[in-house]
Amino acid sequence: MQANVVVVGSLNMDLVTRAERLPQAGETLAGEWFGTVPGGKGANQAVAAARLGAAVAMIGCVGEDAYGAQLRQALLDEGIDCQGVDTAAGVSSGVALIVVDASSQNAIVIVAGGNGHLLPASVQRLDRLLQAADVIICQLEVPQATVAHTLARGRALGKTVILNPAPATGPLPADWFANIDYLIPNESEASALTGLPVASLQEAQAAASRLLVLGVGKVIVTLGAQGALFADGQGFAHFPATRVQPLDTTAAGDTFVGGFAAALAAGRSEREAIAFGQQAAAISVTRAGAQPSIPYLSELQGSTP
Ligand code: RIB
């Protein structure tokens, strides 16, 4: 299999509980359920792209523990090429502690584990995967140097390069922007990257404009129930969200990114790809968990990426 989408990013085991509300500092709450669910932004995006029609390869790193084997197997079960998923000796796999409240919002604490051992040299060793790809996707749950290398190499190879800047804690290095075709932050990430408030569509436009000035190709700000804002320097387009009753928003953004990438790799226009990613994300929020919530192509209207 030759992968047309390559994801360079994290794999986490999500330790998930549901509670009436999120705990406050110093508070102990009773959870209603507990489960271990395969997740991690990179792996979720790889699964989404694979379920939605792309041939996918994953470049990542797990720890030497039972979670690592389970995370790798979850990707193999989706037909994802895992030759690029290393195992780091003497560390745990990445773990995310997640609480989901009654209104479907979540709070997450991440332990990087093996993800922190995904170094630029690992990606260099797998350059043949990047060479064969059409679309390359990165997020921010692996070391910055690895993301920087992947973005620059993707640009040098003339590939379509997507950065989902999640989780974002502040501005991105200035030399990254010119290597990014599509920057896809949510509201809080767009705010962290620009220092601007991003709650409304107008504020999202201002943040997107700032990011375009910094040199990124195009920006898609995902706005949850408010849909998505696309900006390309020529103008803006708003894509309203499909109305659904959300159960758990974990991995909704990942489903959007993976679906968007799969549709681009299949030759769809970027506007069609945005609508496709949104359709997939709308289904994912009606289901619990990260990877279990991601829909298959046959569940989407039209069923072609
Ligand atoms: O985007 C959702 C993901 O964020 C979860 O699966 C969790 O692992 C964290 O990385």
UniProtKB/TrEMBL annotation:
Binding residue positions for ATP: N186, T222, L223, G224, A225, Q226, G227, G253, D254
Cofactor(s) this protein cannot do without: Mg(2+)
Subunit structure: Homodimer.
Function as written in the Swiss-Prot or TrEMBL entry: Catalyzes the phosphorylation of ribose at O-5 in a reaction requiring ATP and magnesium. The resulting D-ribose-5-phosphate can then be used either for sythesis of nucleotides, histidine, and tryptophan, or as a component of the pentose phosphate pathway.
PROSITE patterns, alphabetized: PFKB_KINASES_2
Annotated substrate binding sites: N12, M13, D14, G40, K41, G42, A43, N44, E141, D254
Subcellular location: Cytoplasm
Amino-acid positions noted as binding K(+) in the UniProt annotation, renumbered to this chain: D248, T250, S284, R287, G289, S293
Cofactor annotation comment: Requires a divalent cation, most likely magnesium in vivo, as an electrophilic catalyst to aid phosphoryl group transfer. It is the chelate of the metal and the nucleotide that is the actual substrate.
Record-given protein name: Ribokinase
Regulation: Activated by a monovalent cation that binds near, but not in, the active site. The most likely occupant of the site in vivo is potassium. Ion binding induces a conformational change that may alter substrate affinity.
Family, per entry: Belongs to the carbohydrate kinase pfkB family. Belongs to the carbohydrate kinase PfkB family. Ribokinase subfamily.
Domain Carbohydrate kinase PfkB residue range list: 3-295
Listed pathway(s): Carbohydrate metabolism; D-ribose degradation; D-ribose 5-phosphate from beta-D-ribopyranose: step 2/2
Active site: D254 (proton acceptor)
Principal location class: cytoplasm
Keyword Membrane: no
Coiled coil spans: none
Example of a GO MF term: ribokinase activity
Record keywords, A-Z: ATP-binding, Carbohydrate metabolism, Cytoplasm, Kinase, Magnesium, Metal-binding, Nucleotide-binding, Potassium, Transferase
Keyword Ribonucleoprotein attached: no
EC number: 2.7.1.15
Reactions the enzyme catalyzes: D-ribose + ATP = D-ribose 5-phosphate + ADP + H(+)
